[in-house]
Amino acid sequence: MKNPEDAELATRMARNKESIRKLCHKANVGVETRIPVEQYVGVGLIRTQQVPPLPNLLSTDERVAYKNWELLNAAYGVYRSRMWETFSLAYWIELIVFFPRHVASYLQIPLNRVADWTLEIVWLVFQTFVIGSILDRYKPEITQWVMETLGL
């Protein structure tokens, strides 16, 4: 590499190769992607194979490098949209309502449909009691805040 900045980037990518692969995997980007590559092995013979791009992050093959560039840009887009999603009220409501499903997904616990529904129902009953007890306990303060907010 002629440019020192390119050499520094390649060094950082080599050091963080596993982290980059994990981030792309969590973004569900490039997990099943394969690129056909041919190599001349001599005496008129050519070896062909399908290679995954992410483990070959520092490959000099243009097709692999371009696919890695596409995958990293796609992962960047996924994480950027997830970042903006956290500012949405609908995101937080969905997170609270379906909290057991998110926890199971995070812990990589496979749930069948019955277990998922059972956990959701138990969670909704729990939420109902918690919200009810909070409203009962803080009813005067909530009423006062609403009246002040509405200007009544």
Give an account of the 3D structure:
- The protein has 152 residues and is mainly alpha-helical.
- It is built from seven helices and two strands; from the N terminus they run ααββααααα.
- The chain has a two-stranded antiparallel sheet with strand order 1-2.
- The longest helix has 25 residues, at 113-137.
- It is elongated and about 85 Å long.
- The chain starts with a helix and ends with a helix.
- The relative contact order is 0.07.
- The mean pLDDT is 85.
Please state the average pLDDT score: 85
Cα gyration radius (Å): 25 Å
Oligomeric state of shown chains: single chain
Q: How far apart are the first and last residues' alpha carbons, in Å?
A: 70 Å
- The low-confidence parts are none
- Given the C-alpha coordinates, what overall shape results? elongated
What spatial order of strands do you see in the largest sheet? 1-2
Find the count of extended strands (DSSP E, 2+ residues): 2
Beta-strand content estimate: 5-15%
| Biggest sheet details | 2 strands, antiparallel
How much helix, percentage-wise, in residues?
Answer: 55-70%
